[in-house]
Amino acid sequence: MGFDETELRTEKQASIIQRLANERGVTVDTDDFTKADAKHEIDKLRAMENPVRAHSHSHQLRSKHGNMGSERAQDDNPKDKPSSKFSEPMTEQQRRFIAVMAKEAGEPIPHKGELDKGDAGRRIQELKPKTGRA
Question: Across residues 11-19, what is the average pLDDT?
């Protein structure tokens, strides 16, 4: 579905983004999003699992079925890189979720303030397959 790159996002798109962002513990400012920006953000947020739900269910899945993760190709699209909309530090919920997964994966745990919200979201996606979270 193609959108005019200059057409502002709809209220429905903003509402969906805010709901998904709240569920995932991130903040997204949609004030100057175009429809295309909003669609991209919705897709990105839908790809992120809810950290609380993912953590509570992952231990049960791994103990019953082994590693349930699947490898996802990393997208190097410049639109996925942090922008001023994501320049705020990662949330405490993101930091805790990353810490749990990094410890499970045997990887370094980032310090508070080391990652911004966008980087934290990408780090969560990188750690999921390594910890059995799909």
Answer: 90
What is the rounded CA–CA span in Å between residue 16 and residue 72?
24
Contact predicate 86/116, CB 8 Å: yes
> pLDDT exceeding 70 applies to what percent of the chain?
68
d(CA 21, CA 92): 14
Q: What are phi and psi of 8, to 5 degrees?
A: -65, 150
Q: What is the structure's pLDDT at 37?
A: 86
Domain-by-domain residue ranges, the chain? 1-47, 51-67+80-134
Neighbours of 6 (CB within 10 A): 8
Neighbours of 34 (CB within 10 A): 16
Residues 111-127 have pLDDT tens digits of 877 888 888 889 999 99
The Cα–Cα gap between 87 and 22 comes to 17
Q: Give the separation between CA 23 and CA 7, rounded to whole angstroms.
A: 27
